[in-house]
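User: quick one, sequence for these tokens?
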């Protein structure tokens, strides 16, 4: 840094000795000039600091870079940057900001909130706001972007940018491209307090780069001048060189100054005269208004005092102080007061003291009748009035006038023949007493903080929802709804002024009632997981099918099992999608364990399954075995009595069944006849057909009881013994599986049938022809279960008996119904079943109980060593590590574990003893089953049930025999995770790209699943495996782009390019729900959207930062070229960005919506733009408006909150109905 400072000083010295135009202006203004082709700096100023001097460029193009700092704490309050482009502008050629951390995309990494930024990128100017409160209302993208100006510069053009406090002005010299922005969200150069950071008066400008660093740079800017215009920035007000009137204020402006008469004066600022406020509406004074120089004063009449508002007059209660001077009684009146005396006293002439009424003279006897003063004269007594009163025509009473206490009027008084008449000042109302004036809402809002309403008794203050009225009846205080019951919010409640907002935890979304949070079912969105998705509260899990491994959180890739110790194969391993296969070299064949290889010309001896007999004989090289079940046992898979297997040269030494290659069947001793099911239906008449759930359930119970022995006996009149002899009752072996009720049609009755219906039974309700009612159809299924076979009645006999019982039960039920002797209870009432309404299916279904399978016409239980699979409906052998020693079971029992090692028995283990049938890891035998021997020194075996062990290789030995892993091999050096040991070289190597190894001490690396690979060699876990495929779907109407490996971290040094070319007459709308790019690698990972591949084309969007808040914007060009590039420094989740194309006739409407800050103002609105389902629904309507009719009004209300619908509806209405 010191060297750079010295270089900068030398350049400045060179500039002084050269006759340069910039130096000629030094006396008139302070400026510097940077030559970015030659790497020179000319000029000097105390308020301009060259932080990074321009280096000597390539001369072929203007690519030298510099950074300067401009100080606004002195006399200069405006800086002009004149930029001269002699070459084609490329990328970032100019960037000026409040912060030295400006990186070309707006926003600041925590240094100061007062950071605005203006940049020249290619031919485009972009203006970004700071992030002071309310900044979103000034932006056009819901983020920081305030303004974009296309084609602001070009080759051989000059641009002037002038920056001052909260103002930006631009002018392309020699063209009409000019404009300005005044905004509090621009440069804060007058000491504005930031939300975070320190107050400063600096701006930082980068030339052919951004101020933050050289990682974002450009070329084409050849010369730049930084000018602090002294004449322009002279503060005439401070120096006293203005010509404002003494009674005016002077305000400095960037180009001049402004004069404005002070309050109380009128004029143009250079000439000001006193304003007579009393001339208009008495200055607002209710009594007297006195004009003063530059102001005015309100005064009140005697008996009144000035209100706090400085205009109204209110009564003074004189009696409150020393009784107003009254000797006895003081009575206060509006604007005055009156003294009175008690009994036996009269008021003296002075109106204050009281004298006794006892004495001589008519006046003392109170017989004079005078209201005020009684005067005795030679002609008798006369009455007089006190000042301010007039004697009434009766010559005794006194009438008050406006000159006494303003006539009792609070505001204005007018004398009439009938006395004073009171009126009120403007915006006041006369009260019912005719004297008092009531303040209205027109005067200072009635003193109310919020809402004011005029009433007969005066103003009434109220508060809107979210506020409460204070005891003074005027002020409103915000209610913190979150303090009471969390505001009704399910999760988080945030209080706001006058309201509150609810938000949900991650993985939940807010319902349209804006209170309730429900879990987001991510699994309901297509493509969430490659294979199986399981939704969980607030999240979800992705699972992969067998043979696949998860990567990138939601994706599944094929596992290359062959890369893991050769898949455990003895000879050759071949990987397939979802599985792998072991194969053997010539002269060998695959062992039944599917991994080991044995001699090809060898038949593996057969073992007889449980309760079976195996008889074998051998002729030459061919061996034949017959398999039969023991007495009283049957095969549980086929109906054959004997199975024949053969093995020899003609079968390639594989055991082959005479029909198909199959595993040996098992035998079971538990055999029974099947249960029989038959469906039927009948009808009955009820008052109404109301099929409620509880009625259905009770009906089935009632119907089952009606079929019992007791009910049939009572209905038919037969004894129990007679019923038993006929063998038709539905006993414990008979059951009703289900009853379904439905409404049916009433049949037409014949006269004969009506006559027969005359027979009734007491206590029962029957169907009566002509009565109003409904027909109910009962569909049911009867099941007759078999008895256990005996020596006298075998399985075939039991089946015949079961068929007969079921048939007789149905026939008996039919006879009872036809004789009108069968009743059913429905909804608490007994109903007679309609004659001849029973209809039974002819077919009878045979079923076995769980744990049995149908073999022929018999039910045979699954044998020991097997279980009944509920999904397949078959008997299957117990898998390795389990056993089953009973027949007809639904599961297998786990084998007992040996210490920390899981048990690994044979497939189809019939008892605990066979659990240990396979050789354990570290052991082997000729067939993989006990008895086993440990692996020799220098070998190991990690799998159970093997016929050999793997060699450590390279003459390496093991610590002891029975080794179970390569880790037990004695090697020269121990390899850490991410490495493998090369036995030939005797050293550790890092796992290559596309492989990883999570364990230490291994001799192999695991290949990444599917098409994934690693960013670097030496990877230690599967999370480092990433898919480098650029994701997305590009369509004419809708689509999306997606970073590689999303939602997992994207790979390093990847480059993706997408092209969106909508159909003719359509434009592009893009929504970025969230984007995660690392902020610590100097913007090495960038997403850019522009018109074409050329870096100089019109840019719509560009970012290198993380934003978890959504933004929406329209493309600045008809088509979009999108590129994502990452470097090798860091990685993040990336992005999934949807887009939609729309009719360009709606361009103004769409832009009006996406540029409205209210679209992003609330957390709820932001969550809508993150909800894939809701965005999909919005896009469908935007792309093809006719899809709007797919959603009813109720559906729309259920999907979106009222505030969101209100926002869209107002804009759509204004667009289609502008007047």
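Assistant:
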């Amino acid at each position: 840094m010191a060297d750079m400072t010295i270089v900068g000083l030398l350049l400045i010295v060179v500039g002084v000795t050269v006759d340069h135009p910039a130096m000629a202006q030094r006396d008139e203004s302070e400026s510097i000039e940077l030559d970015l082709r030659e790497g020179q700096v000319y000029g000097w100023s105390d308020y301009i600091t060259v932080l990074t001097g321009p280096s000597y460029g390539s001369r072929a193009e203007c690519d030298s870079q510099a950074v300067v700092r401009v100080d606004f704490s002195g006399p200069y309050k405006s800086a002009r940057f004149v930029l001269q482009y002699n070459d084609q502008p490329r990328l970032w050629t100019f960037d000026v900001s409040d912060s030295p951390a400006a990186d070309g995309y707006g926003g600041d990494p925590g240094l100061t909130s007062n950071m605005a930024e203006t940049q020249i990128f290619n031919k485009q100017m972009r203006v970004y706001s700071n992030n002071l409160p309310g900044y979103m209302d000034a932006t056009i993208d819901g983020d920081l972007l305030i303004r974009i100006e296309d084609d602001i510069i070009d080759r051989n053009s000059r641009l002037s940018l002038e920056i001052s406090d909260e103002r930006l002005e631009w002018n392309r010299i020699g063209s009409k491209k000019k404009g300005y922005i005044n905004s509090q969200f621009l440069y804060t150069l007058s000491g504005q307090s930031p939300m975070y950071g320190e107050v400063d008066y600096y701006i930082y400008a980068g030339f052919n780069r951004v101020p933050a660093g050289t990682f974002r740079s450009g070329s084409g800017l050849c010369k730049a001048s930084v000018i602090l215009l002294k004449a322009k920035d002279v503060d005439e007000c401070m120096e006293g060189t203005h010509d404002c009137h003494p009674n005016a204020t002077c305000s400095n402006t960037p180009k001049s100054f402004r004069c404005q008469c002070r309050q109380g004066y009128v004029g143009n600022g250079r000439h000001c005269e006193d304003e007579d406020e009393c001339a208009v509406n008495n200055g607002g004074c209710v009594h007297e208004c006195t004009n003063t120089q530059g102001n005015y004063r309100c005064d009140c009449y005697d008996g009144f005092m000035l209100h706090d508002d400085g205009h109204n007059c209110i009564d003074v209660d004189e009696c409150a102080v020393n009784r107003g001077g009254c000797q006895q009684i003081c009575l206060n009146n509006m604007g005055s007061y009156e003294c009175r005396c008690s009994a036996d006293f009269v008021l003296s002439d002075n109106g204050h003291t009281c004298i006794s009424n006892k004495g001589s003279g008519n006046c003392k006897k109170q017989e004079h009748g005078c209201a005020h003063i009684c005067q005795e004269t030679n002609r008798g007594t006369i009455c007089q009035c006190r000042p301010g009163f007039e004697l009434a025509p009766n010559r005794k009473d006194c009438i008050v006038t406006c000159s006494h206490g303003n006539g009792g009027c609070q505001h204005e008084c007018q004398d009439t023949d009938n006395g004073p008449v009171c009126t009120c000042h403007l915006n006041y109302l006369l009260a019912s007493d005719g004297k008092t004036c009531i303040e209205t809402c027109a005067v200072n809002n009635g003193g109310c903080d919020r809402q004011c309403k005029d009433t007969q008794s005066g103003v009434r203050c109220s508060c809107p929802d979210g506020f409460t009225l204070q005891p003074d009846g005027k002020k409103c205080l915000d209610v913190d709804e979150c303090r009471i019951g969390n505001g009704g919010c399910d999760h988080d409640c945030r209080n706001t002024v006058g309201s509150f907002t609810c938000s949900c935890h991650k993985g939940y979304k807010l319902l349209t009632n804006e209170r309730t949070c429900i879990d987001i079912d991510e699994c309901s969105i297509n493509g969430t997981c490659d294979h199986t998705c399981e939704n969980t509260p607030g999240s979800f899990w992705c699972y992969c099918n067998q043979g696949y491994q998860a990567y990138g959180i939601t994706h599944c890739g094929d596992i290359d099992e062959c890369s893991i110790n050769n898949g455990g194969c003895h000879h050759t391993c071949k990987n397939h999608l979802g599985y792998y296969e072991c194969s053997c070299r010539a002269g060998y064949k695959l062992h039944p364990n599917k991994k080991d290889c044995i001699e090809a010309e060898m038949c593996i001896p057969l073992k007889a399954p449980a309760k079976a007999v195996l008889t074998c004989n051998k002729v030459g090289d061919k061996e034949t075995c017959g398999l039969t079940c023991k007495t009283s046992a049957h095969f549980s898979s086929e109906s054959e009595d004997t199975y024949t297997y053969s093995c020899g040269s003609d079968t390639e030494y594989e055991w082959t069944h005479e029909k198909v290659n199959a595993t040996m069947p098992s035998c079971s001793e538990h055999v029974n006849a099947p249960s029989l099911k038959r469906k039927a239906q009948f009808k009955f008449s009820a008052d109404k057909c109301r099929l409620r759930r509880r009625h259905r359930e009770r009906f089935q119970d009632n119907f089952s009881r009606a079929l019992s022995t007791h009910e049939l006996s009572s209905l038919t009149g037969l004894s129990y013994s007679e019923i038993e002899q006929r063998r038709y009752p539905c006993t414990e072996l008979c059951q009703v599986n289900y009853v379904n009720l439905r409404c049916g049609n009433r049949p037409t009755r014949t006269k004969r049938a009506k006559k027969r219906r005359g027979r009734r039974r007491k206590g029962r309700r029957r169907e009566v022809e002509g009565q109003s009612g409904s027909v109910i159809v009962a569909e049911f299924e009867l099941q007759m279960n078999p008895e256990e076979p005996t020596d006298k009645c075998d399985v075939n006999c039991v089946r015949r008996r079961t068929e007969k019982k079921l048939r007789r039960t149905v026939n008996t039920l039919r006879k009872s119904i036809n004789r009108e002797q069968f009743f059913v209870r429905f909804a608490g009432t007994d109903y007679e079943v309609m004659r001849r309404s029973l209809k039974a299916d002819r077919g009878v279904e045979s079923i076995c109980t769980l744990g049995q399978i149908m073999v022929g016409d018999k039910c045979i239980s699954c044998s020991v060593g097997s279980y009944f699979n509920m999904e397949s409906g078959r008997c299957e052998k117990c898998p390795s590590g389990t056993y089953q020693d009973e027949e007809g079971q639904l599961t297998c029992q786990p084998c007992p574990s040996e210490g920390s090692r899981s048990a690994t028995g044979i497939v189809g283990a019939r008892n605990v003893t066979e659990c240990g049938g396979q050789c354990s890891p570290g052991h082997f035998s000729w067939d993989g089953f006990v008895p086993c021997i440990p692996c020799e020194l220098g070998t190991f075996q990690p799998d159970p049930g093997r016929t050999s062990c793997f060699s450590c290789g390279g003459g390496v030995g093991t610590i002891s025999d029975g080794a179970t892993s390569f880790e037990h091999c004695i090697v020269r050096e121990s390899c850490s995770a991410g490495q493998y040991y090369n036995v030939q070289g005797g050293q550790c190597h890092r796992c290559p790209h596309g492989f990883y190894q999570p364990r230490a001490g291994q001799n192999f690396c695991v290949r990444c699943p599917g098409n994934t690979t690693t960013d670097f060699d030496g990877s230690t876990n599967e999370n480092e495996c990433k898919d480098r495929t650029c994701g997305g779907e590009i369509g004419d109407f809708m689509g999306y782009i997606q970073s590689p490996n999303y939602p997992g971290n994207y790979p390093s040094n990847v480059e993706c390019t997408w092209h969106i070319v909508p159909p003719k007459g359509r434009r592009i709308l893009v929504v970025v729900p969230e984007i995660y790019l690392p902020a610590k690698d100097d913007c090495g990972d960038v997403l850019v959207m522009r018109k074409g591949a050329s870096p100089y084309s019109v840019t719509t969007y560009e970012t290198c930062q993380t934003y978890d808040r959504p933004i929406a914007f329209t493309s600045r060009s008809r088509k979009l070229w999108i590129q994502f590039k990452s470097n090798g420094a860091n990685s993040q989740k990336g992005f999934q960005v949807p887009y939609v194309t729309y009719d360009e006739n709606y361009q103004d409407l769409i832009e009006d919506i996406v540029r409205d800050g209210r679209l992003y103002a609330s957390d709820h609105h932001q969550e809508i733009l993150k909800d894939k389902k809701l965005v999909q629904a919005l896009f469908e309507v935007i792309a093809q408006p006719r899809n709007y009719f797919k959603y009813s009004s109720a559906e729309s209300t259920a999907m979106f909150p009222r505030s969101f619908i209100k926002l869209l509806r107002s804009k759509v209405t204004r667009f289609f109905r502008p007047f």
